[in-house]
């Protein structure tokens, strides 16, 4: 009998795991209108790019990206990134973000996201991946009323 994997794999998010996504939302974003299973399903139905972080068969994180427009005016928006609190700080969030940025870079998209102004670990991770703060959205998160930074990462330059 083989040992369960201890390495996180980033794979296309499976519909069977949408219930788990909604459960994690309740833990991660309890104060800010967590997404339901049907909200995740709607995101997939719209064709947005969603990936999961899997430890063996267990989903421990998820992330989603929307890409809009046509070259040379392509934009991407990170819709969500969430990692089970028991697995935070071990690289799953970075791996999920990298998977989203790979998709955005394939389309040469400038990428945007919103992040709570008090979420210093996430802001640091985004900065490490080329994002900069470009705006403030007062009371963006509801019902908590928490503010959000808008962050942007420029599209990759074309190879010469």
From TrEMBL:
PROSITE patterns: GNAT (PS51186). GO terms for molecular function: N-acetyltransferase activity. Signal peptide: none annotated. The keyword Iron does not apply. It comes from Saccharopolyspora dendranthemae. Gene3D superfamilies: 3.40.630.30. Pfam families: Acetyltransf_1 (PF00583). Residues 8-156 form the N-acetyltransferase domain. Keywords: Acyltransferase, Transferase. This is Ribosomal-protein-alanine N-acetyltransferase.
């Amino acid at each position: 009998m083989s040992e369960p994997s201890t390495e996180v794999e980033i794979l296309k998010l499976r519909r069977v795991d949408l219930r788990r996504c909604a459960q994690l939302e309740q833990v991660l974003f309890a104060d800010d209108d967590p997404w339901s299973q049907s909200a995740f399903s709607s995101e997939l139905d719209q064709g947005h790019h969603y990936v999961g972080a899997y430890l063996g068969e267990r989903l421990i994180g998820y992330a989603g990206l929307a890409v809009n427009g046509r070259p040379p005016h392509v934009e991407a928006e990170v819709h969500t990134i969430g990692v089970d609190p028991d697995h935070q700080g071990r690289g799953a969030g970075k791996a999920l973000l990298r998977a989203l940025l790979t998709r955005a870079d394939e389309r040469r998209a400038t990428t945007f996201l919103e992040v709570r102004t008090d979420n210093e670990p996430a802001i640091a991770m985004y900065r490490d991946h080329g994002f900069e703060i470009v705006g403030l959205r007062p009371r963006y998160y509801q019902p908590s009323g928490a503010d959000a930074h808008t962050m942007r990462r420029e599209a990759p330059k074309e190879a010469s």
